[in-house]
Design a protein that fits this description.
By secondary structure, this protein is α+β, with helices and mostly antiparallel strands. The protein has two domains: 1-111 and 199-291, Winged helix-like DNA-binding domain superfamily/Winged helix DNA-binding domain (Arc Repressor Mutant, subunit A); 119-182, 2-Layer Sandwich (Alpha-Beta Plaits), CATH 3.30.70. It contains eleven helices and seven strands. The protein has helices at 28-39, 49-58, 63-75, 94-107, 131-143, 161-170, 190-197, 200-223, 228-242, 245-248, 262-290, and strands at residues 46-48, 79-84, 87-92, 119-124, 147-150, 153-157, 177-182. The strands form two sheets. A four-stranded antiparallel sheet has the order 5-6-4-7. A hairpin with a 2-residue loop joins strand 5 and strand 6. Helix 1 (28-39) crosses helix 9. It is globular and about 60 Å long. The protein starts with 27 loop residues before the first helix and ends with a helix.
Length: 291
């Protein structure tokens, strides 16, 4: 998933998530993307309209809101109308599938980079006559979690190489950029520079929101386990909240972050909830889809 950062107003994969939002107030189209990312790809990215409406009802989204959100996702080129076995439905576009595959590697990655891994530098030059491409390039690098080390020089942990190269090729921007592996040799305090290149204060606030919104979910499940339908609803909401954050924090090395970094606690909460809810949630979806 994806799903798909950047700034407070642009979390998640391009086109697959939007809005900083309070965690429990995800928009219907964000929930739809999460549902598609989790449960449609085993069937080639397709889901029937009836199943989608039923599943979104479990999330408190009514049918008119589902249909309105689908229309927006169609206009963005994320979903395409398609019929299977006489049933009306929608399937993910090839681009959406590619973004979700990249998102899987980011969203479900537990490891943080280390200083020994080094850095990835993206250096680009776009002619003034093609400044729209320059804007796209900057926004897509930001959405992948890059910081800005200097004008035209973007920096990220080295593990983002494959995702960056795939994005540049997919958008036809590879001829405008060069990627370099790098080590910080000198000078200055690298931890202080990381604080300049990434907005760690904003990250701390967003991680705090995630912990506040979802810590209670874990406590409730530990004290009063519920049924598969509720597991589905909670898991989709939790994942929708979470999938924005790994794009704002690209797995920066712990050695360069404040002590007891809140992002580690937030990740622990997400993966604990995933282990608690995923199996029951999938069982509920299997029942709905088979009806």
């Amino acid at each position: 998933m994806t799903a798909v950062s950047q700034t407070a107003s642009q979390p998640g994969p391009a086109g697959l998530a939007d809005g900083a939002g309070v965690p429990r107030a995800a928009q219907p189209r964000q929930l739809i993307v999460t549902v598609y990312g989790l449960y449609s790809r085993a069937d080639g990215g397709w889901m029937s309209v009836a199943s989608l409406i039923s599943l979104l009802a479990d999330l408190g989204v009514d049918e008119p809101a589902v249909r309105s959100s689908i229309s927006r996702l169609k206009r963005r080129g994320i979903l395409h109308a398609s019929r299977r076995g006489g049933a009306a439905g929608y399937e993910l576009s090839d681009e959406a599938l590619a973004i979700l595959r990249e998102g899987d590697q980011r969203i479900f990655r537990r490891e943080r980079a280390t200083l020994a891994d080094g850095w990835l530098l993206a250096v680009f030059s776009v002619p003034e006559a093609e400044r729209q491409k320059r804007h796209v390039l900057r926004s897509r690098l930001a959405r992948l979690g890059y910081g800005t080390a200097a004008p035209g020089v973007w920096i990220a942990p080295a593990h983002l190489h494959d995702a960056t190269a795939e994005m540049l090729r997919r958008l036809g921007l590879d001829s405008y950029a060069d990627l370099f592996r790098a080590d910080h040799l000198s000078f200055g305090d690298l931890a202080g520079k990381v604080h300049q290149w990434w907005d760690l204060d904003q990250l701390e606030r967003l991680y705090g929101q995630f912990l506040d919104a979802n810590g209670q979910v874990l406590r409730q499940w530990r004290s009063h386990p519920a049924d598969e339908r509720e597991a589905f609803a909670d898991y989709v909401r939790v994942l929708t909240d979470w999938r924005r954050l790994p794009y704002l924090d690209p797995g920066l090395p712990a050695a360069l972050l404040p002590a007891d970094w809140i992002g580690v606690r937030a990740a622990d909460l997400f993966f604990t909830l995933q282990a608690q809810l995923e199996e029951a949630a999938r069982a509920h979806v299997s029942h709905v889809i088979s009806v």
